[in-house]
Amino acid sequence: MTISIVVRLVCAVVIVVCIAAQRASVQAQQRGETAETDKVQPVNSGPNPYRAIRDWAQLTLEKRPWGGSNGVAIDRAGKSVWATDRCSPGVAPGCLGTKANPVHLFDETGKEIRSFGGGMFVWPSTSIEMETCG
Questions:
Q1: What is the pTM of this model?
Q2: CA distance 126 to 104
Q3: How far apart are CA 53 and CA 38, in angstroms?
Q4: Are residues 23 and 91 in contact, defined by beta-carbon separation less than 8 angstroms?
Q5: Running DSSP on this structure, what letter comes out for residue 127?
Q6: Pick from 129, 101, 122, 125: which is nearest to 113 by CA?
Q7: Which helix (H) or strand (E) holds 112?
């Protein structure tokens, strides 16, 4: 074999390994967990009053997967949940160039009531807050 054939073969193997690693990373991010977050220990010894419910809310209006969740707020009555996401799962570039709605309202069962903001955001903010003034 000549050196150029060996170099091409090595490059092809490296590309295949990189694609496989990226695909595994995107799948882990879509589930909302990574190898790094699984290793994080609690910061105190107090009891955790919360429990995670995976896939509680679904984007049924647009029928698309969740992007990175970056904001959650409960309404004044404690019945509805407002949430924002970054429009695309994994390492995709957020909402840029899409009409996907990044702001969602869910009822207490996780049913999507409405969503808005399509075409208004490139990379939605890191929080959402409810004002008490109504």
A1: 0.60
A2: 15
A3: 16
A4: no
A5: -
A6: 101
A7: strand 112-116
